[in-house]
């Protein structure tokens, strides 16, 4: 029970289309759901979590539909962005209640384990209403983990956490992914996604813009020239050779080095070492300057 | 590169500012509009306007009856009108007091008000004033309609009486003069104001302490209904045993009876709209004092509540 | 019936302010009857008046409204119902559990005080048990109605309020036909059957009342379950 299948799913509210014909498969591992505000990320996670019904299309887990199917929750854990847990219960009581509602065979042990996983043992005896924002987020995380689900859906999970807690949570997520689970999390913060996700799904204005490894996405963007920064012993020679060859649309020469916009990526990567060798120019540094997630993301969003 | 902090954030404004009166007036208007759902989603307008309309229907119906049968006895006594429609007014209180008093508390926006030059007292008085005004409009409009209707149909009634008074007897005197009725009308208006003040005080306090959605509605209506039924039972039993004083004093404990007591004893209302008016002599002043006590007490409680929420 | 859901619901309902209201309302009833008994005012007509006007027509609808909407309304509003919905528990079980909690609250804060009040006043012609039982049956029907309302609309309390005050009281007194569709009147029929006191006179026959009470209860519970299955969790919109 580990692959979430979203098939041609749309969701609209009157005239507003929040999610527009999205098809994606969420496989085991860590997947980052990325997109600007209002892109439909939260709606998509809500659809995957059975909070609302798709207006068309199907959302299923290994073939079983999620909407109107309570049994599927044995395998799914959710951390919603907004709903906070019951203020009047203590952390311990809350997680124990969640464990019992999942009909676990040893709810007490599962609850203790989940609370330890998120490092909330010290505050488990206090009412959730007295928790700080990060603590509330962690207790929500514990409630999603208590039944050891094979799928985790996290809507902006690092909200309100301090750096140490965030690192701890990232380790936890990596560890769980290594055990074969499917984890999907949405985030605005590109560094988090870059660091944690092995696979990204980009949603822009309700449409599915891209999916996969972000470096490979960049390769697929053939309409945008790849930008390289090059430092060598003789930049001018390289510059003229590159221009003469024609695989670059622009070459900028400055004190810091060469900035090349290569239109034909493959040709350029073969050309550069060949030219450098022929001209006996030593290359000090060749680095792609726009292969970060940030630039990939901004290209996708600008489209 | 040297380090410096550049002051381009908060821009100072040294021009003319509009002053406290403007602030209070704005809050007053905002609250008044919110109570009737103006400037808010359509669903919130349904109930207040529906209730206002239903408040007018008996008045309109009475005028129609007057125009038709031309008997002055058919005219509803002005001061009785609020009591007659007290269930509708109670629903208005229960559903709209939370709109005025609970929303800022529910969403925790009170500190936002107090971090600007708005004092706690200005804030509370603007709300109280708005709710009182809303209630006054709700009560005074039908009353005005009634009086207008009387003024317009009076000549018809006089003609009718002249036809009956074949032997020249004082039948015509049975039709009240416009002056007399206007006196009653003005007295009833003062009564409306008193109703508005006391009912506002009572409902806003309860709503301010029950901010969760739906809870304020239930709490206001619960206090109204329970106090009402208790007083009704006590009055019923007291009247049965001819204990008219006890029955009169019992009216202190429920808001509508409280104000009606003042109407009967001090504002010249012809007859009580409750089973028993307060005892003559001391009854009127004591009831008036109780009204004042409710209003003053509620305001101080509201001030304390919002002051605490603003911290 | 899920004990964990029941536990959470009860804890939620008995938070400070709500508990205050729940305790205060029957306390007023008991205060009144103690005062009446002490001043030697407890004839059969007074007993009937108190039990009918206060316990049946005021305390019961109010408590059922607070309990019925309170067990599920605020949770749906805040979105916390999500923690219960995203578990492998069938929707009818959730509804039935919450309904049971509401009925238990009505039992504790309306039925028992009615019985005690009736006893204090003298229990002539078995009025105490008659009214207490009627309050229980009426309470079950009211709770089912209000729980269904709370699942359907955010304004459940207001709608319930209008039903009780406008339909059952105002219109019920004006249009005799409306009496056949009033939970209060059906409860009164039960009282009439259980007591010989002449001061109690029902307007609706017991058969009609019994059937309608059952219909409302079952329909309310079923409708709530169906709507809950289709519930879009609040913040998702």
Structure description:
- The complex is a heterotrimer of chains A (303), B (311) and C (237).
- In chain A, 36% of the residues lie in helices and 29% in strands.
- Chain A is built from ten helices and 14 strands.
- Chain A has helices at 41-48, 91-101, 107-117, 133-145, 163-178, 190-196, 214-220, 235-245, 265-278, 293-302; strands spanning 4-13, 16-26, 29-34, 56-61, 64-65, 76-79, 151-155, 182-187, 199-204, 207-212, 226-232, 248-254, 257-262, 283-288.
- In chain A, strands 6-7-8-3-9-10 form a six-stranded mixed beta sheet, with helices on both faces. A four-stranded antiparallel beta sheet of chain A has the order 2-1-4-5, covered by helices on one side. Chain A has a four-stranded antiparallel beta sheet with strand order 12-13-11-14, with helices on one face.
- In chain A, a hairpin with a 2-residue loop joins strand 4 and strand 5.
- The longest helix of chain A has 16 residues, at 163-178.
- Chain A is elongated, with a radius of gyration of 24 Å.
- Chain A starts with a strand and ends with a helix.
- In chain B, helix 9 (215-240) runs antiparallel to helix 10 (244-250).
- Chain B is built from twelve helices and no strands.
- By secondary structure, chain C is mainly α.
- In chain C, helix 2 (16-38) runs parallel beside helix 6 and helix 7 (127-152) packs across helix 8 (156-174).
- The longest helix of chain C has 30 residues, at 91-120.
- Chain C is globular and about 55 Å long.
- The mean pLDDT of chain C is 91.
Question: Top keywords for this entry?
Answer:
heterotrimer; A: 303 residues; alpha/beta; 4-stranded antiparallel sheet; 10 helices; 36% helix; elongated; C: 237 residues; mainly alpha; globular
What would the principal axes of the Cα set say about the shape of chain C?
globular
Low-confidence stretches of chain C: none
Cα Rg of chain A: 24 Å
Most extensive protein-chain contact, per-chain counts: B-C, 28 and 35 residues
Mean pLDDT, all residues of chain C: 91
Bin the strand percentage of chain C.
under 5%
How many extended strands of chain C?
0
Number of helices of chain A: 10
Biggest sheet architecture of chain A:
6 strands, mixed
Beta-strand segment tally of chain A: 14
Helix amount of chain C:
over 70%
The whole-angstrom Rg of chain C is 18 Å
